[in-house]
Design brief:
The mean pLDDT is about 95. By secondary structure, the protein is α+β, with helices and mostly antiparallel strands. It has a single domain, classed as Alpha-Beta Plaits (2-Layer Sandwich). It starts with a strand and ends with a helix. The strands form two sheets. Strands 1-4 form a two-stranded antiparallel sheet. The protein has a two-stranded antiparallel sheet with strand order 2-3. The protein is globular and about 25 Å long. The chain contains four helices and four strands, in the order βααββαβα. Helix content is about 30%, strand content about 15%. Bound molecules: iron/sulfur cluster (SF4). Iron/sulfur cluster (SF4) binds next to helix 3.
Length: about 80
């Protein structure tokens, strides 16, 4: 399992998440930040610092948020 960055990041892109991530698995994409789901260790540190509550646990994604996991997987498969 992994955490996923969703819609609120598109207008915020604060970036604190990337600073606190202990395994350095968050990168800034063109439209929002992305978490590499293969590297994320589920620590939750990024969730605590996100000012717009954009970071969601994979198993809690709503149907509307599911595409954000697919976007993250595609981003890191490049
Ligand atoms: Fe990084 Fe932890 Fe957030 Fe995963 S849950 S992206 S390991 S800070």
């Amino acid at each position: 399992m992994a955490f996923v960055i969703t819609a609120p990041c598109e207008t915020e892109k604060a970036g604190e998440c990337a600073t606190v991530c202990p395994v350095d698995c968050i990168e800034e994409g063109s439209d929002h930040f992305y978490i590499d789901p293969d590297i994320c260790i589920d620590c939750g540190a990024c969730v605590a610092v996100c000012p717009v509550d954009a970071i969601v646990e994979e198993y809690e994604l709503t149907p509307e948020q599911e595409p954000y996991l697919e976007k993250a997987e595609a981003y890191f498969s490049k």
